[in-house]
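Tokens for AhpC/TSA family protein. Go.
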Amino acid sequence: MKRVILLFLFVFIQTNVFFAQQIKGQFSALPNQSIKLQGFDNFDTYVIDSTQTDAAGNFTLQFTQQDYGMGLLVPEKNKSFITVLSNEDVKLKGSTTAAPESIKLTEGTQNIAFIDYVSQQPKRDQALSAWSYLQKMYATEDIFSEEKSPKKAITKEIKRIHKSEASFLKDLPEESYVKWYIPTRKLLGSVAQVAQYRTEEIPATREALREMNFADERLYKSGLLKEAIENHIWFIENSSGNLDQVFADLNTSVDIILDQLTEDNEKFNLVASKMFEVLEERSLFTSSEYLSKKLLESDDCGCLNIDLEKRLHKYGKMATGAKAQDITFTEYTYFPEGVSATKMSELKADYYLVVFAAGWCPHCTESLPKIAKMYPEFKEKNVEVILVSLDENAKDFAQFAAPFPFISTTDYQKWDGKAVADYQVFGTPSYFMLDQELTIVKKLKSVDHIKSYIDYKIKE
């Protein structure tokens, strides 16, 4: 029996060694240094293999089929270098990862193709930007309006550049990882440009983002999963127009993504949790509430893990229309002259604007002075402002909050504070509008949103 087991282990080890791929390389400027090969797993990286370069900077690292996707070569105290991990060996040579232009691939067709694209595409993009600028100029400026030949030449060159990229991608092997990875990476990297400068591409980009398959295992080995969620949400927030349309479009995307994952509980929980987190961080509360409600109401299959379910139940208690917890003012509270209270509900106000912010938060240091400037207008409508600071010490709290004309309180517990937990705060700044009974009437997204809401929804 022992012989059988030993034989099995021998065959298993030999088989895995046989099917292992290698990255052989030389970084001539990095002799006798440790170097790691890292792979991507969901939102994280993990170490696949590690070794030491020799006196000439040579190294060999191995990976197996379970690591296929994108990887990082990470030398000690140096920049990482991205690489494709597929069913082929890789050979490369250069001086250092800090000078990626020095690195040449001599083996590994997918890696060679990826490096070619990464080096060529910025030049195509620069040329397209220049030609597009000229195209608009020749179309709108009177002095060029009759120049037909240049217009045709410009249009022809723009088409040629697009065709050049399309041909490159078409020629990639059909089942290769890079054939999926390169267009996906480009799509996610394009959202800011499209939303701000190429607005005619917004509908097609939105559609392409929604067609991205979150059930595809390749996404989870790519290092792009975080961007796939964050950039999708950011793009809709910044391209859909008014807030009502933003929330409608976000909710549609939420439905599409969750529907893709109903057969995989692990991915379902992973992606749903991240979407919820991003929506909260970006103060897109209408959609985070929609997501929370959808997840809890449709969990007949028991798909939600316990931690996410508990989090959503707690969050549900802070949905619009729910009763918020009173806020007790600690001994560290700053009160305006003539004001004294032990808790928020003792204040004489028709509405309470509760703000969670901190001096270490750049958006907060930009937004809170604006609220302070508008505070007299708010008081005219009997709206009281209460700042709950997430600063961790007296010096930072004083520097941030002392100048403000409204109540500012803290417990120096940052994310572990009672009010932060009671209000299920996941990002700063966060804004809650409560009525006299401490019912949540609105979760607000920005200072402009606050002003608009108070101006048009709250009567004097």
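The CA atoms of residues 285 and 443 lie 6 Å apart.
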